[in-house]
Design a protein that fits this description.
elongated; 4-stranded antiparallel sheet; single chain; mainly beta; 207 residues
């Protein structure tokens, strides 16, 4: 994704193929179509001819469409779009978006993540609408152990993340964090011991 257009590199040559500006996310679906999100939250779908594209706008309410402020990601081979109005999944057979979850005004602020990332192990990392409270789910649901480990950084605004197995890098306005889950906390490796300092019964020191 370039500032002035969408580029393809082949055989060491870089060529601009269309005028989609400032692309930040690029995915391929099961039909080999290319999906693109730019920094404005616009979603584009490119066919075999990368010069041609369509702007995909999730529909909500009574024929209303969300052109901007969409989040694009791929999870379990599904192309998914999130926005303030709900969660939309691309149906390859019907060739259209289907609503799988709708956000009411009551839960709107709590259900729209500011950041979403899917790692190579298909774990889904997401924040709340303010970019905080980083949360992880895997194929079985909530990754409880990992979410406990992430609790100390819940107040940090996560803007970028790369996870490869146990090696995790997180960035934001706070700086950069490198987190390796294989490194054990020394305090947790100690075996607990009990020491009796004194025995008191009814205010009388027995020992």
């Amino acid at each position: 994704g370039g500032v002035d257009g969408f580029y393809v590199m082949q055989e060491n040559s870089l060529m601009m193929v269309n005028d989609i500006e400032k692309a930040v996310k690029i995915y391929e679906d099961s039909n080999h179509a290319i999906w693109v999100q730019n920094i404005f939250g616009q979603i584009f779908r490119l066919g075999n001819d990368l010069k041609q594209y369509e702007i995909v706008m999730p529909e909500f309410g009574e024929g209303q469409k969300a052109e901007l402020h969409n989040i694009l990601y791929k999870h379990n081979d599904n192309i998914i779009i999130l926005n303030n109005h709900g969660r939309f999944v691309w149906d390859d057979k019907a060739m259209k978006l289907k609503v799988t979850a709708y956000n009411s005004q009551e839960n709107l602020l709590h259900s729209f993540p500011k950041f979403v990332y899917v790692d190579p192990n298909a774990r889904l990392w997401s924040t709340d609408n303010s970019g905080k409270n980083l949360f992880v789910t895997n194929s079985s649901g909530e990754d409880s152990l990992m979410n406990v480990r992430l609790h100390p950084i819940h107040e940090l605004n996560i803007m970028s993340l790369i996870a490869s197995g146990n090696d995790i890098w997180m960035g934001g306005n706070f700086g950069l964090i490198h987190f390796n889950t294989e490194v054990k906390e020394p305090a947790f490796s100690r075996k607990s011991e009990i020491f009796i300092r004194s025995i008191v019964v009814n205010d009388s020191v027995v020992w």
